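Human: I would love a firmer grasp of how sequence relates to backbone shape in proteins. Could you go through the record with me and say what the backbone is doing? Here is the record:
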Amino acid sequence: MGRAVAGIPKRENSPQLGGSQAGPIMHKDLFGTKMAQALAELREEWSPLQCLDALRKRFDPELARQGAHLFDLRKRCKSRIGLDLLPYLCEPNASQVTAPAIARYRAQRIAQLTPNSHIWDATCGLGMESIHLSRAGLEVVAGDLRLETARYARANLATHGLPARVVCADAVGSAVRAQGQVLDPDRRPKGSRTMDSKAWSPSLEA
């Protein structure tokens, strides 16, 4: 029997979850328009401390800290994934994002093989695959095991005005119904890359 799929509340701080879903609590206003404007006004040459000081003048300390960290991640990931596709980044997912060219090619191939189909992006991470699948004309449900990661994915998809639904769900045995599934396991479940498929999350043998 499949596991229940949890929808994602839009405007509340997430409780600290146990198990594999545990992670830092995202501030409810991190994806707001005021923070977006403030981040756009920061200078790329500023140090993390300078960015933090500037944001503290406009936001509470925790929101300022998360905003400064996001700005730093954007600078570090700019050459690899750009700024336009995924404006909202978190760790460790930022280092695991599929290269845009690969995600685009994969989505185009899936659309050619199964046009207008319903696809379950079961390991969506920050949403790179889901963005390209949606742009290719596919109906997408994106999901991640971690609630906070799923919230970042939803924010990224919303930035592009894409209709994909985002849920918090286990890639293995979930209740999502789809004609096709995209599964890109975490190959760094303990911090370093491994080629042992049994250690991936989810394992290909699950």
Summary: The helical segments are 33-41, 48-56, 61-81, 100-113, 128-135, 147-159. The radius of gyration is 17 Å. Residues 42 and 115 are 42 Å apart (CA to CA). The first strand starts at residue 118 and ends at 121.
